[in-house]
Design a protein that fits this description.
The protein is mainly α and 201 residues long. The protein is built from nine helices and no strands. It has two domains: 10-102, Rna Polymerase Sigma Factor, Chain: A (Orthogonal Bundle); 117-199, Arc Repressor Mutant, subunit A (Orthogonal Bundle). The protein is 68% helix and 0% strand. The protein starts with 9 loop residues before the first helix and ends in a 7-residue tail after the last helix.
Length: 201
Amino acid sequence: MRHNCSHINKEEWNLLSAFINGDRIAAREFFEKYGGIIKYAVGKVDTEGMVIDKEDLFQEAIIHILRDDKKIIRDFEGKSKFSTYLYIICWRYAKKMAKKNNNMCGKETSLPEEIPAPLMEETEVWDADQKKALLEGVEQLNEDKQLFIRLMFYDSRSTSEIMAVFDYTSPNSVYSKRNKIITELKKITKKIMKTKDYFDD
């Protein structure tokens, strides 16, 4: 875990460091602070009709975080907010455990092909070819940005919920992130549309 990165402040660094070193108070604070994010990540895996349920997956995710002297936390490199990193780690692991125990994944394994109307409006996408290009564009975004797109446009999560996942301190951070991602998506979509091979299938 690196301290000299822009995505983690001193208070969060101290909490994670104390938790790694076995401090009981820090452990309680860690799960009070991030427990909701872990539950939310696990909750994205559909367990309907499965032997394993969401509570089981939540417990498995906790065990995964603590395994090998909290290696998951020690491996954090600061390339995103820690809350985002933790969400992705727990979501992936929950899907893996669902597949292992039930020989199938939850339904929420990827973004649906039906693009939400608000996302099409934001990116000025209207016809079928543009929709296809937009979907490919979303897939080209990094995991952090894909998660943001899922929460805001597919899941219709509130600004406060998105702030919690990304550990933002103000709604302005959410709006700024949205604008940057939309600008990037529009550029990617236009680039895909201009690619000759795109129309050959």
